[in-house]
Amino acid sequence: MSISDTPSANVDHNEIDKFSALAERWWDPEGEFKPLHAINPLRLDFIDARVGLAGREVLDVGCGGGILSEAMARRGARVTGIDLAEASLAVARQHADEQGVALEYRYISVEDMAEEAPERFEVVTCLEMLEHVPDPEAIVRACARLLKPGGQLALSTINRNPKSYALAILGAEYVLGMVPRGTHDYARFIRPAELARWCRDAGLEIEEQSGLVYHPITRRFSLSANDVSVNYLMICRKETA
Do the record's keywords include RNA-binding (predicted)? Predict the structure, then answer.
């Protein structure tokens, strides 16, 4: 099945092609996805501490090669990962099989998943994806539909301001070479206030947000509740009534 066969797909074909071309290198900790490997323990612990992954029914939207999906499954969650890059899903399935990690991967858009299984999941994660799609607000609405009442949504994306342009694009792509050039489009970066408004409009309550900060001297990442100027995470909860 091709992307064109998925009628409600909110997808940029150039973005799919970009990540598909790198699919074989998803699990190379020194390759193009090195930053994701570096931040995964931080974002995993942040999410787990707030939602309690063990035993929870979790959907990972835009799962790519499965770095977060597999980590959540290892924490005891029942994970379904979805993506529209078939090459990435193939790598994710192969790696999970090789590691003996039990989880499910599906080629389906989040909008179609919301039509198929509304209010199925206790936790939905959508990390480092919103800035790569034409209509990120529609993704948030679909994620909210997939949550059970009282369920929690974990989001992450990049703020839109001069500092984020300097660090996430000029610094990360052109100076430090942390990610391939052209990975990000500044116009698609999302301010926390914008994301919070979309969440509230979708019936979600903002519980917490935290910045993900890169320290160039130590070359390490850390979480900071006081600095959401570049990368940030947000935890929301679906209203129960």
Answer: no
Choose among 143, 86, 69, 70: nearest CA to 112.
Answer: 143
Nearby residues of 33 by Cβ (< 8 Å), 6 or more positions away: 22, 25, 26, 27, 65, 67
The 10s digit of each residue's pLDDT in 75-117 is: 999 999 999 999 999 999 999 999 999 999 999 999 999 999 9
| Sheet of 121-127, strands arranged across | 104-107, 78-83, 57-61, 121-127, 147-158, 231-238, 204-215, 220-224
pLDDT tens, 169-196? 887 766 666 777 778 889 999 999 999 9
Q: What gap in Å lies between CA 89 and CA 58, rounded to an integer?
A: 17
Annotated binding site for S-adenosyl-L-methionine: 43, 62, 83, 127
Q: What is the token pair recorded at 225? A: 């509740």
The residue type found at 1 is: M
In the annotated binding site, the residues are 43, 62, 83, 127
Please give the single-letter amino acid code of residue 169: I
CA–CA separation, 173 vs 81, rounded Å? 27
Structure tokens that stand for 186 in this block: 């500044």
Taking the C-alpha atoms of residue 121 and residue 144, their distance in angstroms, rounded to an integer, is 10
Distance between CA atoms of residues 51 and 151, nearest Å: 9
Q: Full-prediction pTM beyond 0.90?
A: yes
